[in-house]
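[09:14] KT: can someone run the structure on this one? pasting the chain below
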Amino acid sequence: MRIRIVGTQLPGSFCRPPGIETAYSNIHVGVRRRNRPQELLDLQRGDAESVSWTVEGTVHETDVRGTHIQGRPGERFLYLSWVSVDDAGTLTMFRRAKLMLADVPAETLAAAVESGVLEARLGLTDATGNPLCARVEPATIRWAAAT
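[09:31] RB: done, structure tokens below
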């Protein structure tokens, strides 16, 4: 099964999260590979109109696994890592959002297994205008079977 993540409402190329002295510029976002925090799939600009990624996963009952899927059975998730890219191309991760596969309703997962695609749609800017981070609550993300 493929997992497609579609992000809209990106925060822009510059941010200064509340309570942090450092401002980040030239920000990008990508899907973090399991056990390789510096390896990000298809890094995309923070000022893009929309972004999307597709990762491969395998499903056994309700357990989803794959090279970009993190966590233990029953607690699986995907990380969207926010990075600042300097002039030398060095990435500095400063935030990450956790997309909980464990929050996907069982009937949605079953339909996605049948269709071959599980799709997540979400806005990527938080209430303060900064990159979305921490655990993404079910009300903020829409999971659906797609084609």
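[09:33] KT: thanks! The longest strand covers residues 36-45.
[09:34] RB: yep, looked fine to me
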